[in-house]
Design goal:
The chain contains twelve helices and 21 strands. By secondary structure, it is an alpha+beta fold. The strands form four sheets. Strands 1, 14, 15, 16, 17, 18, 19, 20 and 21 form a nine-stranded antiparallel beta sheet that branches. Strands 2, 3, 6, 8, 9, 10, 11 and 12 form an eight-stranded antiparallel beta sheet that branches. Strands 4-5 form a two-stranded antiparallel ribbon. Helix 7 packs antiparallel against helix 8 (179-193) and helix 8 packs across helix 9. The longest helix is centred in the middle third of the chain and has 19 residues, at 195-213. The protein starts with a strand and ends in a 5-residue tail after the last strand. The model has no long low-confidence stretch (mean pLDDT 95).
């Protein structure tokens, strides 16, 4: 076999959709939340392959012969492992507002928590590996997200429209202090320093957000995004962290890139997500999980930013590649009609999201099905009428 059909795992996080992944794969919904479909070799939920000797996890297969599986180039750069994780993400409720560390911060944080004797599975453990976690999300339909800090003066103008006296001291900070200082002050104050004020604001916000969301002005979609997030996590002061961020609505085929330090949250929708093979997340709120405000403040980039859309460039017949600075992963979308030739000297995963894609010498893939291509697979031919996402490790630029 030149390609392995992957047996994958669905992660049932509470924010997941009860229908989206079932509809994608054409099966009956379970009635339970299904948040993420994982494809890769992450130890938390590795995919499985069967090469005729029984089912094995993909990380086990790679560890047995990394030169054949991921190839000399990838072993030399990232070690004997698959450096990316591919997912289908299905959000029915808001994910936590979160941020990821740089590679240097991850290595230092992991070492410090190890030295302190904090178990890897401890709920208050922050750094569960030594890696950073850049990521890319490509929407499969309309997809709502929050990404990066809005200019604080613009946020002050939005918050003034809420007419809530509890917010007035923070509005003054956002309007008058230098941008990075203002954002740091308001975020850390709402989550820790003045948490009681943050909780009071979170309790007062829902009816006001609901009223503004029902209006017909240009900001109504943003108010609706905040309203829904506040409804998902009643009383959580993390809603104030969310309301410091830009609201982004992706159309199908648009992709958003998230680098280290950029606070973000996915709110609603179905998308294909790829990331470095890491589980390092620092949360800012909208979560029942551990929030360490001091550690968070050391990692967050408090500069106002414009959301970073990943441009798509043609790289072959029917194939568009999303351009990012990430070294661990590359993602492209292939619209099959004419056959596509697939060749690379590293590992690849193919994910079908529409139609039937046939791999010469390998399996046929229906919606939601995926295949792993080892580095030794050689050139392959894809045929069919289908939409396929292709994940790989970029070569030298």
């Amino acid at each position: 076999m030149t390609a392995d059909l992957l047996a994958t795992t669905v992660r049932p996080y509470a924010w997941g959709s009860t229908t989206a992944l079932a509809e994608l794969t054409g099966r009956r919904p379970t009635g339970e939340p299904e948040a993420e479909l994982w494809m890769g070799a992450h130890p938390g939920a590795p995919s499985r392959v069967d090469r005729g000797h029984g089912s094995e996890t993909l990380d086990t297969v790679i560890a047995r012969d990394p030169q054949r599986e991921v190839g000399p180039r990838v072993v030399g750069r990232f070690g004997p492992r698959l450096p990316f994780l591919l997912k289908v993400l299905a959000a029915e409720h808001a994910l936590s507002v979160q941020v990821h560390p740089t590679a240097e911060q991850a290595a230092a944080g992991y070492a410090a928590e190890d030295a302190a004797g904090i178990p890897l599975d401890a709920p208050h453990r922050i750094y569960r590996d030594r890696s950073h976690k850049p990521e890319l999300i490509c929407a499969l339909g309309e997809f709502d997200a929050l990404c990066g800090f809005r200019d604080p003066r613009a946020t002050a103008g939005l918050w003034e429209r809420l007419a809530l006296p509890v917010l007035d001291p923070w509005i003054e900070v956002l309007r008058d202090e230098p941008a990075e200082q203002a954002l740091r002050t308001v975020l850390t104050s709402a989550l820790a320093g003045e948490r009681a004020r943050g909780e009071r604001a979170a309790a007062e916000l829902p009816p006001v957000l609901a009223r503004l969301a029902s209006g017909d002005d240009a900001d109504a979609p943003t108010w609706a995004a905040y309203r829904d997030a506040a409804r998902d996590y009643p009383g959580d002061p993390g809603i104030l962290a969310a309301m410091l961020l830009n609201h982004v609505r992706l159309a199908a085929g648009q992709a958003l890139y998230l680098d280290a330090g950029v606070p973000h949250a996915y709110l609603r929708g179905l998308g294909v997500e790829i990331m470095a093979n890491s589980d390092n997340v620092l949360r800012c709120g909208l979560t029942p999980k551990h929030v360490d405000t001091a550690a968070l403040a050391a990692v967050v980039d408090f500069r106002p930013t414009v959301p970073q859309f990943a441009p798509a460039a043609p790289v072959g017949p029917g194939e568009l590649e999303f351009r990012t600075p990430a070294e661990e992963f590359g993602l492209s979308r292939i619209e099959l009609g004419p056959p596509a030739e697939i060749a690379d000297d590293g590992p690849q995963i193919l994910l079908c999201v529409r139609g039937i894609a046939r791999i010469d010498g390998g399996p046929a893939l229906g919606p939601g099905e995926s295949a792993y291509l080892p580095a030794s697979a050689g050139p392959l031919r894809l045929t069919g009428d289908a939409t396929v996402f292709r994940a790989k490790v970029p070569g030298p630029s």
